[in-house]
TrEMBL record:
The keyword Amino-acid biosynthesis does not apply. Its EC number is 5.3.3.2. Mg(2+) binds at E163. Belongs to the IPP isomerase type 2 family. Residues 29-101, 171-340 form the FMN-dependent dehydrogenase domain. The gene is fni. GO terms for molecular function: FMN binding; isopentenyl-diphosphate delta-isomerase activity; magnesium ion binding; NADPH binding; oxidoreductase activity. Gene3D superfamilies: Aldolase class I. Involved in the biosynthesis of isoprenoids. Catalyzes the 1,3-allylic rearrangement of the homoallylic substrate isopentenyl (IPP) to its allylic isomer, dimethylallyl diphosphate (DMAPP). SUPFAM superfamilies: FMN-linked oxidoreductases. InterPro entries: Aldolase_TIM, FMN-dep_DH, IPdP_isomerase. This is Isopentenyl-diphosphate delta-isomerase.
Length: 342
């Protein structure tokens, strides 16, 4: 494994290849399979008038969808991000970038993250691990990452389990909340705090909201298990066994969504983690999400071709619209009140 300044790039290469070629799904379910919409056989709505538009970070979205943060820093990541940005711009949906920590030590990697020229109109999210604030990253450097890609918000991701199962992971997670508060107060744009696949609890959500965070991405369990990704990267049997033992760890996405929405009716919630379709996304909206995110299936499609990625996103949008019509929902506000059976 490469060391020092090249370690971040090597890790990113590993992460892309493992996610594309290995089964890294959590053994837990997201929970949305337990929800069923009550079918409306007489919706009295024209399909062409179904309205999926919303606003996010002050910008209009044609559908409440986020291409969740995935990658950056490598040549392959650049190609993937360019395709993601092109399709996001055409579809009118939001996009997050993968962790940009490497940009602080390898300025040349900016070309793998800079997609604003491709997607001038969409909400674009910069991204760095929150734990890096305990390892020297400053609020000023966070602002630099935002400015570098002309982002609309900065994601601080919480990936404690991934770090602890990573061969070179960070271990110091103490006194991090005050540093998050500092970044929130320093930046000129909103801070989004995001889990990476294990969910946000009620207690954590309360702490983050108290720190001034206005947007939470709950990213519950049911999708990619990053401890399983790290199990494939393990350099010895012990590391592999430790990482593999957490395959079913986390708060299922549905449970996390309910917990966080209970904390605040006003907080903007991005729901991700194990969502597979526009139907799942519709369920998330119904339970309290503002927008929903997907990553894995978009990554695999983007690795193949722009046309396949475009088809995948159109599939999600059409599934959402059909669900809305079949529940008698003309708008997303209507969908949030649709009849369901738990």
């Amino acid at each position: 494994m490469l060391k020092d300044k090249n370690l971040d790039i090597a890790r990113k290469q590993d992460h892309i290849e493992i996610n594309l070629t290995k089964n890294v799904e959590s053994t837990l379910k997201s929970g949305f399979e337990s929800i069923q919409f009550i079918h409306n056989a007489l919706p009295e709505i024209n399909y062409d008038s179904v309205n999926t538009t919303t606003t996010f970070l002050g910008k209009s979205l044609q559908a409440p969808i986020l291409i969740s943060s995935m990658t950056g820093g490598t040549t392959k990541a650049r190609d993937i991000n360019y395709r993601l940005a092109q399709v996001a711009q055409k579809a009118g949906i939001a996009m997050g970038l993968g962790s940009m920590r490497v940009l602080l030590t390898e300025p040349d990697t900016i070309k793998t993250f800079a997609v604003r020229h491709i997607a001038p109109d969409i909400p674009l999210l910069a991204n760095i691990g929150a734990v890096q604030l305990n390892y020297g990253v400053t609020p000023k450097e966070c602002q630099y990452l935002v400015d570098a890609i002309k982002a609309d918000a900065l994601i601080l991701h919480l990936n404690v389990l991934q770090e602890l199962t990573q061969p070179e992971g960070n271990r110091n997670w103490e006194k991090l909340l005050p540093k998050i508060r500092e970044v929130v107060n320093y930046l000129s744009i909103p801070v989004i705090v995001k889990e990476v696949g294990y969910g946000l609890s009620k207690k954590v959500a309360e702490s983050l909201i108290d720190a001034g965070v206005k947007v939470l991405d709950i990213a519950g369990s049911g999708g990619t298990s990053w401890s399983q990704v790290e199990a494939y990267r393990a350099t010895n049997s012990l590391q592999n066994r430790i990482a593999s033992s957490f395959i079913n760890w986390g708060i299922p996405t549905l449970d996390s969504l309910k917990m966080v929405r209970e904390v605040s009716k006003d907080i903007t919630i991005i729901t991700s983690g194990g969502l597979k379709s526009g139907i799942d996304g519709a369920k998330a909206i119904r339970i309290g999400a503002n927008i929903f995110g997907l990553a894995g299936q978009f990554l695999k499609a983007a690795d193949t071709s722009e046309s396949l990625l475009s088809e995948e996103i159109q599939l999600i949008i059409e599934q959402l619209k059909i669900t809305m019509l079949c529940t008698g929902s003309h708008t997303l506000k209507d969908l949030a009140k649709a009849e369901i059976r738990l």
